[in-house]
Amino acid sequence: MSMNSTGRPTHIGTGADITAHGAALLPNEPLLFEIGDTHHSGVDLPEVQISTARLGGFERRSDLDLAGLTEPEAMRHYVRLSRLNHSIDGGFYPLGSCTMKHNPRLNEKVARLPGFADIHPLQPVSTVQGALELMQQLAHWLMTLTNTAAVALTPKAGAHGELLGMMAIKAAQDARGQGHRKVVLVPESAHGTNPATAAFLGYTVKPIPAREDGTVDVSAVKAALAPDVAAIMLTNPNTCGLFEPQVVEIAEAVHEAGAYFYCDGANFNAIMGVVRPGDLGIDAMHINLHKTFSTPHGGGGPGAGPVVLSQALAPFAPVPFVRKTGEGLELVEHAEGEALGRITAFHGQMGMYVRALTFMLSHGADGLAQAAKDAVLNANYIKARLGGAFSLPFPDYPTMHEVLFDDAFLKGTGITTLDFAKALIDEGFHPMTMYFPLVVHGAMLVEPTESESKQTLDQFCDVMLELAEDAKAGDATRFTAAPMKAPRRRLDETRAARQPVLRWDRGQDLPQAAE
Amino acid sequence: MRYLPHSEAERAEMLGVVGAAGIEALFSAVPNGALLKAPVDLPSHSPEFLVEAHMRTLAARNQAAGDGPFFVGAGAYRHHVPATVDHLIQRSEWLTAYTPYQPEISQGTLQMLFEFQTQVAKITGMEVANASLYDGSTGTAEAVLMARRLTKRSKIILSGGLHPQYRDVVKAYLRDDPGLVCLSASPDGQGDILDRIDVDTAAIVVQTPDFYGHLRNIEAAAQAAHAKGALLIVVVTEVISLGLLEAPGALGADIVVAEGQSIGNALNFGGPYVGLMATRKEFVRQMPGRLCGETVDANGERGFVLTLSTREQHIRREKATSNICTNSGLCALAFSIHMALLGEAGFTRLARLNHARACALADALETVAGVVLLNRTFFNEMTIRLNKPGAEVVEALAANGILAGVPVSRLVPDDPAVEDLVVLAATELTTDDDIAALVSGLKEVLA
After folding, report:
1. Is ipTM over 0.85?
2. Any idea what the Cα angle at residue B258 is, between residues A157 and B112, rounded to 5°?
3. What enzyme class is recorded for this protein (chain B) (predicted)?
4. What is the Cα–Cα distance from A240 to A190, expressed in whole angstroms?
5. pLDDT recorded at residue A21
6. How many angstroms from the chain centroid is the CA of residue B195?
7. Are residues B251 and B397 in the same domain?
8. Helix (H, G, I), strand (E, B) or coil at B428
9. What is the C-alpha to C-alpha distance for residues A41 and A70, in angstroms, rounded to an integer?
10. How confident is the model at residue A140 (pLDDT cuts 50, 70, 90)?
11. What's the Cα-to-Cα distance from A171 to each of A14, A310, B230, rounded to whole Å?
């Protein structure tokens, strides 16, 4: 077996500037292409002679110019890069609408059992009965927690689940001879994925204004429910952190008008085990396993977005799904009747199913309800501690699992929501979600989750109060120059968009200082 | 409960600060009757060792690929993943970070994505790549929609060699769309796809190696498409083939979509995987998904940010190029680490090794009476015609511990023309003993 080549040609890499180490434990790490070269490799594979007879003349004629690293070099590169990230494990991450809760390591351990990780989606179903059983158990938990008739497990993320749910609604409307319904109602406070999904399917999006108190008015919905409305997409609890008090009346009005109720389940963490969305009259709702059920966010995925469906929409569920037969479990892989077909190859995010079910079994029905209650308690605690110094656009209702502030408290300080958020970075906290939802000015959406101790919440609140005091006292530099202690100062996003550099190229100049 | 930090005393103290009599008071907006009085009818919380035991029992009822001779492919492939990859992706800073919305404290993820985009662009031979999509199949559907936006034409022609489930996904995304032409699954050729291109055609979709393992002439497809002003979308389900075969970008592809699972990611019963998408620079503003770009910080130091987000749903809402939000970050990381460990030298050797193992498999299969190898060309996957129904043979071999491949009838039902076909893959993990076991098993079942 041939071993790694050694010796590094000198023509690769761009020179001395890239070897800067950075300060103390904050590395300044060069790009992989600046440290590696095309001869180095971190795998030992034999060099085999091949005949090109079966390649049809399509073999590669040019070099790839792809840098490689030996194993120790790779380890150091990725460990050093990792240190430049904030993470849940490393610190408080109160990103509203994202549910950055603790990711238990038992989930990771069991997901790596060969019986789950090393099975192929197309091996005979007789050899994967345990996997199908797991899918059935997960489906049972999701349907029980939501009191719904069916669940489609396959969507790969929340937005993919929305797409599936809205496809099911479209298919149901078509089947009822209601294909002329071309409008979807979406409250202004909705996630951007909602209108994007509706438009993706050819629907016209009609915004529903929020009331002064941050909730949706049933009379506004009724007024908008024309005969061409196919569905409403409503987030509940909504993105202002409020439970929609008229949700049942809204559902009734929607159904009466022959439309369906799509519920964005991004905020299910506030109510899991406490309120069953099926009892509120929803027809479809995606559940982000990577939010509510603790599968890791991984720097932006992979997620999983199973969709629960009401009796009315159940016949339109996509394939595949698991079905009991006399001999065991079978996988239905081809659409029958009115079903949608398939929205992804294979069977969805099995790796996430394993983690989510592990989390559910760990918590149990009692623990999940307690987690939801703690998440809501934590958000209300932050609201109570900060309410005096910060401005609350919707003070009337108790908040659910996240609390929304606006930027009225910063008026006259010359400090923006963005500046304020960046100052939090210097204090060791990940900022809250900013400028979302769009219905309040300079929004700051704080979601603590159930994972945070009172001690952490107090530390955060103390820092927030101190920052608010400084802002009001006119100490603008602490904010406008922030962050100063992070691996990078503020980055020039305009430049990135105007002169896009989306890949490394040989000989590419290191950037000049901003003009 | 081990995941919940509060004691009852702390809960009471916090409720006092909130000014609520009890936790129920915080749920006062929930309509009467909808607030549950008791937990739902599911088991109570459980200690770690019991949960693990439950999951182990389920896992034990599956036959892992590593348990015996294994030849299953058809869009997901069993390859060796270096131990370093799985160690690194479990580091807290990678595993438990979110989408890098705050670039100053997310430079690790952002630089990694920039490196990932560069790697994908290089192996596909394209100018730019995005920061990943869910998987190859949804990526194909996104590419089809992107081609329509770029050309402002509606007709899409899917080759008969496209993975049948990829075709199904495109069909679901374009439900009842008269512009979609799906050529029927064909183990012999890709049909008359090049003759079907006309001036209404937005794009043709060609997979290589195709579902049956055949290598397709991308250059000819590109020329035929471009002659009518249409685009060529190339789909690759076995990304390791790009270590040996000419990059689609060098042959005229306009959009390349690939399933990246083979590099760095386990089989996982079908997911999570990682979709790769690459295109020409001029098309980048119609590309879906996240993009990471280089810039400088206030001190003039190089740094990275998510960019061109005016294409995306959180800015553009109903005018976005796609509704995608979360993508496949951690799988992209696994891909990128494995690809960095391979480098050009390792990637090339790995691809050659895969082809060599497949040649050994093909040679052995051709010695079995009742087996006809359909491929004149292949990378690491091939189709055989049997003298018995494929599903029956695969099931019989599975009963003997041999996972022999995918009967085409599983993916293309009710078509007598494919009933006796099985698609098999070999990888660097396929040993001579595995092949010998398959051959003797086949001889027994087919006799």
Report:
1. yes
2. 70
3. oxidoreductase
4. 9
5. 52
6. 30
7. no
8. coil
9. 5
10. very high
11. 56, 14, 31
Contact status of A103 with chain B (Cβ, < 8 Å): yes
One domain for residues B23 and B120: no
Q: Under CATH, what is the fold of the domain A106-361?
A: Aspartate Aminotransferase; domain 2 (3.40.640)
Taking the mean position of all CA atoms in its chain, how far away is CA A205?
23
- What is the average per-residue pLDDT within A490-508? 92
Residues B190 and B306 both lie in one domain: yes
**Which chain A residues are closer than 8 Å to B344 by Cβ?**
38-39, 63-68
CATH numeric code, A367-489: 3.90.1150.10
Interval B165-208: pLDDT, tens: 999 999 999 987 899 999 987 787 667 899 999 999 999 999 99
Q: Which of A87, A109, A184 to mutate to test the interface with B (most CBs of B within 10 A)?
A: A87
Return d(Cα A229, Cα A232) in angstroms, integer: 8
Test A301 with B327 for CB contact under 8 angstroms. yes
Burial (CB < 10 A; 0-12, 13-18, 19+), residue B45, is buried
Instruction: Let me know whether B207 and B100 are in one domain.
Output: yes
- Helices A417-426 and A454-473: angle between axes, nearest 10 degrees: 130
Nearest Cα of chain A lies from the Cα of B197 at a distance, in angstroms, of: 23
> Does residue B59 lie within any of the structural domains?
no
Could you state, in order of their start, the residue ranges of all structural domains in chain A? 23-46+65-84, 106-361, 367-489
Same domain, B110 and B76: no
Stretch (H or E) spanning A108: helix A105-111
Do residue B168 and residue A333 have CB atoms under 8 angstroms apart?
no
Domain membership of residue B7 (yes or no) is yes
| B333 plus B368 within the same structural domain | no
* B440 lies in some domain: yes
Which domain-ending residue is among B320, B339, B358? B339
Q: Domain end: B299, B319, B339, which one?
A: B339
Cis peptide before A437 (omega within 30 of 0): yes
- Is the CB of A454 less than 8 angstroms away from the CB of B6? yes
Which chain B residue is nearest to residue A373, measuring alpha carbons?
Answer: B23
> Which position has the token pair 């690459």?
B278
Its domain, for residue B365, covers 65-80+345-446
Does residue B46 belong to any structural domain of this protein?
no
Q: Are residues B76 and B93 in the same domain?
A: no
Neighbouring C-alpha atoms within 13 Å toward the C-beta of A203:
29
> Which residue stretches of B184-259 are H helix?
193-196, 218-227
CA distance A416 to A413: 8
In the structure, what pLDDT confidence band is assigned to residue B310 with cuts at 50, 70 and 90?
confident
Token pair belonging to A68: 């490689």
Across B42-55, average pLDDT: 98
| Cα A294 to Cα A375: distance, rounded to the nearest angstrom | 13
Given B26, B345, B411, which is nearest A376 (Cβ)?
Answer: B26
What angle is formed at CA A443 by the lines to CA A160 and CA A273, rounded to 5 degrees? 50
β strands within A265-392, DSSP E:
284-286, 307-309, 321-325, 328-332
Q: Which two tokens stand for residue A86?
A: 């904030």
Q: Which of A166-175, A313-322, A328-337, B132-141 has the lowest mean pLDDT?
A: A328-337
Identify whether the C-beta of residue A156 lies closer than 8 Å to the C-beta of residue B324: no
**Closest of A255, A158, A227, A154 to residue A197, by C-alpha:** A158
The answer to whether A454 faces chain B, any CB pair under 8 Å, is yes
- Residue A324 at interface with chain B, using a CB cutoff of 8 Å: no
Q: Do A377 and B15 touch (CB under 8 A)?
A: yes
Number of H helices, E strands in chain A: 15, 14
Does the pLDDT value for residue B291 go beyond 90? yes
Q: Do B26 and A40 touch (CB under 8 A)?
A: no
CA atoms within 13 A on the CB side of A464: 27
- Residue B87 has which token pair? 């160690």
Q: Are residues B171 and B271 in the same domain?
A: yes
Spatial distance between the Cα atoms of A163 and A154, rounded to a whole number of angstroms: 12
Query: In total, how many domains does chain B have?
Result: 3
